[in-house]
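Dear support,

We are seeing what looks like truncated structure output for some complexes. This example has two components. We would appreciate it if you could run it in full and send us the complete C-alpha cell output so we can diff it against ours.
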Amino acid sequence: MDPREVIERARAEGRTALTAPEGRLLCEAYGIATPGEGLAGSAGEAAEIAEKIGLPVVLKIVSPDILHKTDAGGVLVGLRTAEEVREGYGTVLANARAYNPGAKIDGVQVQQLVGGGHEVIVGAVTDPTFGKVVAFGLGGVLVEVLKDVTFRLAPVSGDDALAMLDDIRAAEVLRGARGAEPVDRAALAGLIERVGRLVTDHPEIAEVDLNPVFADARGAVAADVRIIVGDRPEEVRRLPREEILRQMTRIFKPRSVAVIGASAENGKIGNSVMRNLIDGGYRGRILPINPKADEILGLPAYKSIADVPGDVDVAVFAIPAKFVAAALEEAGEKGVAGAIMIPSGFAETGNAEGQREIVEIARRHGVRVLGPNIYGYYYTPENLCATFCTPYDVRGSVALTSQSGGIGMAILGFSRTTRMGVSAIVGVGNKADVDEDDLLTFFEQDDNTKAVAMHLEDLKDGRGFVAAARRVVREKPVIVLKAGRTAMGARAAGSHTGALAGDDKVYDDILRQAGVVRAPGLNDMLEYARALPLLPAPRGENVVIITGAGGSGVLLSDACVDAGLTLMDIPPDLDTAFRAYIPPFGAAGNPIDITGGEPPSTYGNTVRLGLADERIHALVLGYWHTIVTPPMVFAELVARVVAEEKEKGNVKPVVASLAGDTEVEEACEYLFEHGVVAYPYTTEKPVAVLGAKYRWARAAGLLR
Amino acid sequence: MDPREVIERARAEGRTALTAPEGRLLCEAYGIATPGEGLAGSAGEAAEIAEKIGLPVVLKIVSPDILHKTDAGGVLVGLRTAEEVREGYGTVLANARAYNPGAKIDGVQVQQLVGGGHEVIVGAVTDPTFGKVVAFGLGGVLVEVLKDVTFRLAPVSGDDALAMLDDIRAAEVLRGARGAEPVDRAALAGLIERVGRLVTDHPEIAEVDLNPVFADARGAVAADVRIIVGDRPEEVRRLPREEILRQMTRIFKPRSVAVIGASAENGKIGNSVMRNLIDGGYRGRILPINPKADEILGLPAYKSIADVPGDVDVAVFAIPAKFVAAALEEAGEKGVAGAIMIPSGFAETGNAEGQREIVEIARRHGVRVLGPNIYGYYYTPENLCATFCTPYDVRGSVALTSQSGGIGMAILGFSRTTRMGVSAIVGVGNKADVDEDDLLTFFEQDDNTKAVAMHLEDLKDGRGFVAAARRVVREKPVIVLKAGRTAMGARAAGSHTGALAGDDKVYDDILRQAGVVRAPGLNDMLEYARALPLLPAPRGENVVIITGAGGSGVLLSDACVDAGLTLMDIPPDLDTAFRAYIPPFGAAGNPIDITGGEPPSTYGNTVRLGLADERIHALVLGYWHTIVTPPMVFAELVARVVAEEKEKGNVKPVVASLAGDTEVEEACEYLFEHGVVAYPYTTEKPVAVLGAKYRWARAAGLLR
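Here is the complete output from our reference environment:
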C-alpha cells in the first residue's frame, strides 16, 4: 500500500496513531529497516513465521482497542523455540481477552527480537516555528534523564545526518568508547535522513518515534515504530525575494516620508517623529499629514496623504490605533511601500482583530507594515530617524533589530554611550507583517551593513528565517539574542521525541545550523554588535595570548577554552623567536608571558611577531598597568603596530584585556577606535567577542 | 589481619597495588560489602559455600600456575543450584588439569554472582591541594564519557554522602527514573562514607577504586576493589587560629609601619610607598628606613630598623631581592609582625632558594611574610595604603585579595571607577607564607568587612582554606575567582577515579561544599564584590520580577533560571492585588508586566506591594525609559519606596535592569548608592548578582 493511502486511511478512520504494521509499511517504503515480522492468525502460523524470520521472537497482540499492550499482558519477549511461540500465542490471546473482552483482535504480531549494539532514538516532530524537525539521541538514561538530543530541520542531508551523530554530548560512545562496538555511521545517518524525507514528503505526519533503534557495526534497525498523523500544516505565505527587496529598499532608502498625525505640539509622538526626521538630517521629502494644520515645523502640511503631490515611499503612523485602518487605506491607495506602525493598542493589548484588519488592508494594497507597537526605525546612511525617540547619527556598519521597545531603547543608549557605529536600528514590535527574514533580505545586499544583530522572542516563519540567515551568514555575521530561552514550552506531546523538543533546544540547534551567532544575553548581543564589524575575519584556528600579567594569562586561557578557541601549540622555532624578546624568567609557550615591568618595546616586538608570523591567526593581549608602560603608551603602540602590519598585509583579529587603574578605560576606547577590541577589568569579554567572530567565520566556511 | 598490617606488608614488598584478597580484607574491616566467597577443596565444600553465600555463584580455579583462568576453562559463571556447583567443581578442576597437568591447584574459589541494579563507581584519590578526596558517579558511559562525577573531602559525613547521590547530573536515575529500581540510598551513602573513613584512617592509601559497585534496593556491593598505596603524605603545618589572628591584627591595624628602602627620589618604589602612606592619611607612625638619609618626605629616617625606638608592627620591603634576607633578619629581631614583601625576583623568576631562605628567617622570628612579588596592601579603616600603586580611600565593606599583581591593578581601577567601597585590597603574590586562610581568619572577625572576594590560582593548603571559608561563610559571603579552571591537570593516575579527578572538578565541588560563591570570571568577581555587601540577605526563595518592558521581562526570566533563582508562583490574592495597579492588558503572574508608558505611580505601587507582601523575598525590576517615567524619576522613586519599606521592617534584596537612553546610567549610579543593585543595558548582570547573593544565603543556612 502507498504511504499516502496508509495515512489517509488512518485519518479517515479518525485515528491519529498509526498501528505498528502501518508504521512498518511507511518504514519499508522509505528503506528504514525494521525487525522481520508477520501477523499470525493461529498458533501454528505464529511458529511458522517465527522460524522464517529467525528466533528468538517477540509476540504482541494486535488490536485497535488495546493501546497499552504490556498492561494487557499482550506482549511476550524472548521466545526461543517454535514450541514456546505456539504456547505464547495462546497466552497472549487469553490475556488480551481477559483484559478487554470486547476488543476486536486482528491477530498476534510475531517479531524478530533485536537488541545489542547501541540503543538510539530517531524521531521527528512538527515544531510550531520550524515545521518538520528531526531528532537524534542515544537511548535510555542519556536522552531521557540528561536530554542529550539534537535537532535538525527536515529534510536532513547525508552530511547533516552524519554531523548529528557527533552533535550529542555522548558522541564518543557511537565511535566505540569504552571498548564498545562502533556503529555503522553511514547506516545510522541514512536512517536519520530517511526519517527526514518521510515527514517532508508527508506533512500529515505530525510525529515519528523510532525508539529504540538498535545500531551496531552491521546496521541500524528500528525496533519500535510510533507514528502520529494529523492535519496537513498550513503553508506559510512567502513573498518572492525580489519583491521583498524592492519594498524594503523603498522603506530604507525612501525619497519621501509622510508622517500621519504630524503635530506641532511638543510631547506628541507626531511631533517627536517630525523633529527627529528634520534634526536627523534626512534629505528626502518630509510630508506632515494633519487635517487641521497648514504647516508643521516649517513644512507644508497635507490634510490627507492623498493630497500629497507625487509618490510617497514611507508613511509613519503617529495616530491612535482606532484611526489607523482608515489612514492605512489612504496610504495604500497612494501606493506607499511601507507603513511604519508606531501605534500600540493592537495584538499586545488583546486587540488581535484590529491587527488582522490592518494586515488585510496592507496586503490588499501591497504595503509592508513594520510593527505595530514600535519605536520606529533608524537608517543612518540616509540620516533617517523615523522614530519618536531621539536622533542617532553615529554611522557604522551594524544593523540592529528588536522585538521589544525596551530592548530597542537599550540598544540606543548603549550605542550612544559606546559611540557604536550603526547602519540601522529597527523595531519590529508585534511583527504583524515585516519580520526578521524581510529585514535580513535587505541587509544581505546592503553595502552599508556588515553585521546584523537581532533581538527576538519568536519567529513567525522559522524556515524563512533560516533560509535568509544562511544566505546572509556567508558574507556577514548574524547575531541573535533569542529571549525566552528557558521557558520550556509545555507542549502536549504524543511521543518521546515530542516531549524532548523543548522550544529552546530546537531553536538552539537550528539557529546554530543556520550559522547564526547566538548571544547568551542582552549585553553580549550589544558587545558582539559593537565589536564584530571591527575585527577582521580570522583565517585559521591558531590563537595566541601575549600577556604582561601572568595572572591575566591564566584567566585569558580559561576564557579561550570557554569560547571554543584553540590555543596554538607554538612550534619550536616560533617559541625561540618569542623568547628572544622576553626576559629569561618569562614564559614562552602559550600564553606568552612577557612578565610585568617590561618596556613598551617588549609588547611591541612580541605583538609584531604575532601579527607577522602567518601560522598565527588571532591575538589576545593581556596588558598590565605599570609605570614603565602606561596604558595610553600601550594603546598607541599596539594601534601603531597593528596598522603597520596591516600595511604589509598582516590582517588578523586582535583583542585585548587591560588590567590597571582607571587610565585603562581611555586606552580601551582608543584601541577600539583603532580596530582593536579592548575592555578594562575583564578577561572574559574580549575573548567572548573573539569567540563569536570565530563562530561566524566557521559558519561562513572561512576556516575550512 | 589488621588493615595497617595489610598495607605495610604490601609496602614492605615494594608493591603499590594491593591484591584482590588484600583489598577485600580492607573492605571487610570497614564494612564495605563485597561479594560473598570462599575457597573450596571439594565438590561438596563448594556446594556448601555456595548455599551459604547465596546462589547464583561463579567458580574460579585458584592456582599460582594458571594466570589466565578463562583460557584454561577455569571459570564457570552463573551456577544456579547446589547440584550445578557440585558438577561445576569437577569440570573446572578437570579443565585446569588438562590445561596444565603440572599446575599446583589450591582449590576452587566460589564467589557470589553480583550484578543488576545500578552500576556505580565509588573511589578516593589523594589530591595535591585537598588531600584525601572521595568520588562518586554512575558507572559506564555516564562517568567515563560524560564525566558525571562528584567529589568531597574525606571523611564524608552521612549527610554529605547522601547529598553526593543528588549531586550528579543523572541523579534521577538512582531515584528510579524510567521505571528503574530505586537504590537503597542509605546503603550506598554508607558505602561512600566508609571509603572516606578508610582513606582518612590510612593516609598511605593513595587511591581507591570500587568499580563497579552494584547498587539496588537491597544494598550496595563492591564487585571489584582496586587499592593503591604509597607514602604517607606530609602533614601540613598550621598555626593556631589565635596566633594567626594576633599577627594579622597587628598587620592590618598597625601602630607603626617601617618602610625598608624608603626613598625621597620620585619613581622609586620606596618613594611611592612612603607617599601613599602619607597621602593616604595613615595616622600611625611612618618610619622610613634608609642607611643614607636622615629625613625622607619630612619624616626622620633611620639607618636600620634596629635603630627605631619602640615597637614596629609592619615592615614594608622596597629593596631589591638580594638585600631582603639581611633586612628581614633585622626586622625579625625588632619583632615586627608582618613583612610586606613587595620585591620580585623570588620563586616567580626561578629563585625558589631565595624564597625558601626568607621563609626560614621569618619562621625563626615569628614574622608573617605577605608576598613576595606583590603590590602591597590597603586597609581603608586605618587609612593604610602600604603599596606602590596609588592611594584608595573609598571606605566600604568588601575585602579583596589577588594572587596576581595585574588582577590587583584591575581591582583598583574597577573600584575607583565604580566608587566601590572596600575595606581591604591585598596582594598575596607568591604566597611564600601568608595565604588565603590567614586572611580569611582576619576578615572573619573584622567588623569592617562584610564580604570577601579572592582571586586565586592555587591553594597552598586546600583543607585550611575550606575550614576557614566554612567559618566565614556563616556570617559573610566569600567570593572566589579560581583561575586555571580549564587547565585539566595532566595527572599520572593509577585508577579510574584518579583519571576523573581533573583539577577543576575537584576544586568546584569542594569550594561549593565550603559555601564559597565562585565567580565565573574576573568581571563577575568584581561585580559580586561591589554588589553583595549592598544587598540585604533574602529570607526565602520567592523572587518576583516587576517590569515595564515585556521584552526585558522575558530576558530577566531567562536570567533567573540561569542564576538558579525561583520565580514565585503568585497566589491568587496577590495576583489580584497586583492587577489592581496595572492596565488591563498588562500581565500579572510572574514577571509582572506593568506595560510601557505607565506613570511613576504604577512602578511605585507595584514595587511597594512587592516589598510589603511577606511571601515575596526578592525583587527584580525591569525599567523601560519613557517620557512618562524618565530614568531619574524611576530611580528616586524606587530608592524612596525601598527606604520607606525598610523603615517598616520590609528589608529585601532589590536589583534592577534599566533599558533606555544614556540617562539610565546616572539612574543606575543613584540606585546603587541607595542600596539597589542596578545596571544599564543588561538584563543578565543584576540577576547574576542576586543569584550570587542567594548562593551565599543558602550556604549560610539562611533559607532552610
